[in-house]
Design a protein that fits this description.
This protein is of the alpha+beta class. It contains five helices and seven strands, in the order βααββαβαβαββ. It has one domain (about 5-170): Gcn5-related N-acetyltransferase (GNAT) (Aminopeptidase). The protein has a seven-stranded mixed beta sheet, with helices on both faces. The longest helix has 18 residues, at about 10-25. The protein is globular. It binds coenzyme A. Coenzyme A (COA) binds near residues 102, 112 and 142.
């Protein structure tokens, strides 16, 4: 496959990424998660870029942007769970949260997500971070994807958008659900 993973550059990629988010929303109405200000281009740009990322990448397939992923410092909902009893199995390393992960519906199931995810996971491993992420339980495609990538289910929590599953890259034990 001809897909390349490259660093995100807003001037080059932002408009195409927002177009993709609109398309993703048509096929996955729960994604991105609802925000109070609705789903205009400015709101989506703010959702995408309005927080500090440790790194951001896009997938480019034959010159067209096909997906996005980033790594951040962990959000409070994850550090709260990580510091709760029983979470010492997540490992000793600091956490890097993988998020804002989506692939154009036209390119899904062609391996683009795997390439993006491998890039993010190799970044966390190289930075001595344990990759973690939260996914709402109803995001069936994403849950199937993370299980296929060998991520471990380490916790669950009730978030504003429903029950979340927390997956970690290494050092954790699966929990029974
Ligand atoms: C999750 C997502 C990014 C996966 O991207 P993708 O490019 O389709 O994933 P890949 O093609 O690399 O899939 C790799 C493997 O994951 C699993 N997988 C991916 N999508 C799946 C689906 N819809 N159903 C079952 N398994 C799936 C499969 O095992 C697949 O391998 P296979 O196609 O050889 O069987 C994509 O479905 C998406 O953008 N979903 C909407 C947004 C979202 O939910 N993001 C995550 C929020 S936490």
């Amino acid at each position: 496959m001809s897909t390349e993973i490259v660093d995100f550059v807003a001037e080059k990629h932002l408009e195409q990424i927002i177009d993709i988010l609109f398309d993703v929303r048509k096929s996955d109405p729960g994604y991105p998660p609802p925000v109070d200000s609705g789903f205009g281009r400015d709101t989506l740009a703010e959702w995408l870029l309005g927080e500090h990322s440790l790194a951001r990448w896009v997938a480019v397939d034959k010159g067209r942007v096909a997906g996005f992923i980033h790594v951040t410092n962990p959000h409070k909902y994850l550090t709260d769970v990580a510091h709760s009893p029983g979470s010492e199995d997540w490992g000793e390393s600091p956490l890097g949260e993988i998020g804002k992960f989506f692939v154009s519906p036209h390119s899904q199931r062609t391996g683009v997500g795997k390439l993006l995810f491998e890039k993010a996971r190799s970044f966390t491993r190289g930075s001595q971070l344990t990759a973690v992420l939260a996914v709402v339980v109803t995001s069936e495609k994403a849950v199937a994807f993370y299980q296929k990538q060998g991520m471990r289910l380490v916790a669950t929590f009730q978030g504003v958008h429903g029950e979340n599953l927390v997956y970690a890259d290494a050092g954790g034990e699966s929990v029974d659900r």
